Amino acid sequence: MNGCILILPLIVSVMAIFVFYISHRRILRERRNYERSFLEKERELRKYHEDLKFLQSFLKGLRSIGITTRVSPDIRELCQIIIEKVTKLMKTEIGSLMLLNPETNLLEIYGSVGLDEEIVRTTKLKIGEGIAGRVFLEGEPIFCADIEKDPRFMRKANVKYYSKSFISVPLRVGDRVIGVLNVNNKEKMQEFNQTDLELLAIVADEVAAIIENTRLYSRMREMYIGTIKALAHALEARDPYYQGHSERVARYSVEIARKLGLPQEQIENVRRAALIHDIGKIGVPDTILLKPDQLTKKEWEIIREHPEIGEELIKPIDFLENLSPMIRSHHERWDGLGYPDGLKGEEIPIGARIIAIADAYDSMTSSRPYREALNKEKAIEELKKEKGRQFDPHLVDVFLEVLKEEVER
Ligand SMILES: [Fe+2]
Asked: Where does the pLDDT of residue 67 fall: very low under 50, low under 70, confident under 90, or very high at 90 and above?
C-alpha cells in the first residue's frame, strides 16, 4: 500500500514531465516553423521591395529614353543616345540598335555600345540573315541565356562568339518591323532571364515609337522647309535682281556661324532662317517691290513691315519657331536704330546679327534697279565703316576672315 502511495506521485510526475516535454517540443517546432515562415515572408518582402525599386528605376529610365527624342532630330544621333540608355537600363555590356536602311534594304547598326567601330561600320545584314535578320524577318524575339549551353548556337571549337548571352527583339510599329534591338552580355556574367526578355520588349515598343515619330517629324519638317524654300524662290522669281540672293545669304551666314563655333543645330537654324529671311516680302505688292525709282515714305513703311510679316508667317509652324526671332530682327542695327523693335547690341539675336551682315554684303555686291553692284573691295569698306553702327563689330571681323579665306581657296 505504502509502495503504491510512493509510486503514484512518481508516475504522475513522470507523466507530467512527459506531457510537458511533448508540449514543449510542439511549441518549439511551431516556433521554428513560425520563424521559418517569418524569414520566408521577410525574404519575399525584401525581394518584392527590390523588384519594386528595380521597376521604379526601369520606368524612370524608360521615361528618360522618351525625353531624348526632343534632343536630336538626327536619326543616327538619336539611336546612339537610345542604345546608351537601353544598355544602362538593361545592365548589359553590349548593345546595338539596327534599322533597315531604306536605300539599301539592309539592316545596319545605327547606334551601339561595346562594339568595335569596324563591326559597327561593316555590319550590313540582309533580311533573314543572322540572328538580327531572322528577328526582323519573323518579327519574333530570339533569347539565349548561355550560348555555350544552347543547342541552337552550339559553339564550334574554333568559333569565337562575341557574346555569352543575348536577347534580340524586333522594333515594331503596328504590324511593321522597322529594326532590331540587341543586348548582349549581362553585367557581372549573369544570364538573361524571362523577365529581361519581357522588359526589353517593353523598351523596344517605346524605342520603335520614338524612332517612328522622329522620322515622321523630320519628314514633315523637310516638307515644310521645302514649301518655304519654294516660297522664297517664288519671291526671287518676282524680282530678277534678287536671283540666288537667299541661297548666297544662307551660305555666308553658315560660314560666319561655323567660324564662331556655334553648335551644329544653331548653325542649321541660321541657315534656314537666312534662306527665308525676306519671306515677309511676299506681302509687299510688285508695284513697290519692283519700283525702279526712289520709294516714297509710305512705300518704305510698307517695305519695313516685312520682318514682322515673315515672323507671323512662320510662327504657327512649331518646329520653325526657333527661326522667327532671326527673321523678325534681321533689320535691327547694332546701334539700336534698326527696325522693327529698335533692339541694340547683344539684345539682337546672334543669328539675326549674322544674317544682317550677310544680307547687306550680298545686296551691295548685286546690282539693283537704282544702282550698279559694288565691287568686293568697296563692299568690304562699307562693312568696315558700319562696324559698331549698323553691324556687330566682332561679327564683321569674322565675316571679313570668311571672305579672305574664300579668296585663298
Ligand atoms: Fe529683309
From this structure: low
